[in-house]
Design brief:
Length: 482
Amino acid sequence: MRAEATTQLPVETDADTVVVGLLEGERIAHDLPGGELTTLVAAGEAAPKPRRLAHIHAAGKRWILVGLGAREELDGEAVRVAAALSLGRARELRCETLCWEVPHKVGDEIAGALVEGTLLAAHRDARFRSPAGRRDDDDPPGPERLLVSAHHDVGEAVGRAATVAEAVNWARELQDAPANVLTPTALADAARAIEGVTVEVDDRAGIEARGMGCFAAVARGAATEPALITLCHEPPGARGPLLALVGKAVTFDTGGISIKSASKMADMKYDMSGGAAVLGAMRAIAALGLPVNVLGVVGATENMPSDRALRPGDVLEAMDGTTVEVLNTDAEGRLVLADCLAHAVARGAERIVDLATLTGAIVTALGDTHCGLMADDDAWAASVEAAGRTTGELAWRLPLHPEYGELLRSRVADVCNLNEQRKAASIVAAMFLERFTGDVPWAHLDIVGPAWDLGRPYAAKGGSGFGVRLLVELADALGASG
């Protein structure tokens, strides 16, 4: 779907369907000459209550009225949801060109949110159905164009939002691809296809040559080649510190020798969601030309049981020389990330954010609404939280405390990879990662909850691309402050 900005009134555009948002206590700014839209509200068919929808045919167009709630509570997330719901109705009406009228007296970020909600909801992925096997609900007809009508030119906000939404949808396709298609090598090929960044890929031999004993050990059980993917965005005139985005990309996680139960193991193709978010963010950052130096690091591997696989009780040596006793091979993501974080530090990172589907415990604590945030620097944590609030990809900070670190004491090595008592599992996993970040301000996002099957109208099922928008906003803010 193409997104365009216009200063034409909706009734003057060539759109066949127009969406008008209703705000509590406010009249419709541009009603039709016959007052048809106000009449629909007066009749009770349409209302400003959030998620309420109604439609009417008038003036040669279809008009969808959607509730936006109170103006003082209107934010980007509310608008994304309203846009997604409106697109659903537009699809039912066989819309070809959809026009959104931007509410009056709002910031340009609201226009951007309308685009994001619409384009994210429009995403359909039928790659793995044969033509004969496709159904209407797999790929229903939908608008080909989106017009965003405002009194002033909102073209910059619309273009930026469309670029970011495209990157999110691309990341979602990486997430949703089955593990027999999206191998670590295939993920590296996807990274190489990103325009505007330089990409280096290390295979198994390269990972071992770098001294990444933890990453290499996780990869040892799989016949597929692992990939250390390093991306660089270095635009002319870049400002601010070097930002490192580090993603866990276990393209399929059986748990290894400490094998998982069969229940929902098919979902373990999503254990690469952190890596997908980093690649999606790098794609958008490069496309937008953000004036900040960004380093992307993605550790891609499968975690498989075999006669070569990592075993409980093994002792590994990480890239920075730390020795790690493995108590459970299903705590593999932190082993991969340990070496990836050390790699980012070695490459000169001055700020780090890592994203990983790291612990099921975070879902028990926060559900799907927030991801978990753990950080060793208050100012950096505040920046990450702010980016999450702006984009609707919310992060809730959990505490780090030396006592949690004590739970990682090993009897035979510097540290073990798991707290056997299962106490504060998400925090303890983060404290394991912190050991590999040196003195660089670092934040960890545990994204298991919102990474897939998010349940929001613009990302109900499958991969959500969670983290892409947050990372782009964070990079943009970092460049602006530099």
